[in-house]
């Protein structure tokens, strides 16, 4: 097992009973993950504004996670081949 830091966003909207959550990428260090939090928040705000949602609340977290080395290897192979994995990346 290897340790990765998983970037997670929680998004709340008025008049919607559930909190949306989105998992994005994983990083080798907590510092790498923390550096991406503001960028992710800005991306989510821009995306929701384009969809006409003007009121929302976002919090992002870097969660320590254990992953299997093969997951990281598969991500690196796909990245080299130009294949994106969406929110399931182990972006180390």
Keywords:
alpha+beta, disordered C terminus, elongated, 92 residues, three-stranded antiparallel sheet, 2 helices
Describe the structure.
The chain is of the alpha+beta class. The chain has one domain. The chain has helices at 30-50, 69-80, and strands at 2-12, 20-27, 57-67. The longest helix has 21 residues, at 30-50. Mean pLDDT is 83; it is low at 84-92.
> Which range does the strand content fall in?
25-35%
The number of distinct structural domains comes to: 1
Shape type: elongated
Strand arrangement, major sheet: 2-1-3
Distance between the termini: 14 Å
Percent range for helical residues?
Answer: 25-40%
Q: Radius of gyration over alpha carbons?
A: 15 Å
Helical stretch count?
2
Please outline the major beta sheet: 3 strands, antiparallel
What is the H/E order? Answer: EEHEH
Show unreliable segments.
84-92
What's the total count of β strands? 3
> How confident is the prediction overall: mean pLDDT?
83
Structural class determined from secondary elements: alpha+beta
Compact overview of the structure:
This protein is α+β, with helices and mostly antiparallel strands and about 90 residues long. It has helices spanning about 30-50, 70-80; strands spanning about 1-10, 20-25, 55-65.
Helix/strand layout:
Layout: E1 2-12, E2 20-27, H1 30-50, E3 57-67, H2 69-80
Antiparallel strand pairs: 1-2, 1-3
């Amino acid at each position: 097992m290897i340790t990765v830091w998983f970037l997670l966003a929680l998004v709340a909207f008025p008049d919607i009973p559930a909190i949306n959550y989105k998992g994005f990428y994983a990083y080798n260090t907590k510092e790498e993950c923390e550096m991406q939090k503001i960028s992710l928040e800005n991306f989510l705000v821009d995306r929701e504004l384009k969809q006409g949602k003007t009121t929302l609340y976002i919090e992002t977290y870097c969660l320590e996670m254990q992953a299997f080395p093969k997951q990281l290897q598969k991500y690196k192979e796909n990245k080299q081949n130009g294949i994106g994995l969406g929110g399931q990346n182990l972006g180390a």
